[in-house]
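WARN no homologs supplied; continuing
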Amino acid sequence: MKIIGVTACPSGVAHTYMAAEAIRKACKERNIEVKVETQGSIGCDNYLTEDDVKSADGIILTKDIDIQEAERFKGKPVIKAFAGDVIKKAPQIVEKLVQYLEQNK
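OK structure emitted
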């Protein structure tokens, strides 16, 4: 299974990167392949390629602000959450996405 994500917040600083790290940690604890793009104050880091998106089973997006180029995820299962919730509850958010993916194979 592969999960990708994009995190961003209004200031584009701490919460953007903390949310990305929380997703990475929660996925690694479950042995789930993961890649997370950050859209922060210094620009986009770890950009998700077309191949990353095609090979992803599901996607986690923060919804504090609009994600740039969100149309590239059309047709993929997506969970949206506030960056603060992702930081605090990443394992539960990952679990929710995994359960959805398993039920909708």
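Residues 2-103 form a domain with the Rossmann fold fold (CATH 3.40.50.2300).
OK
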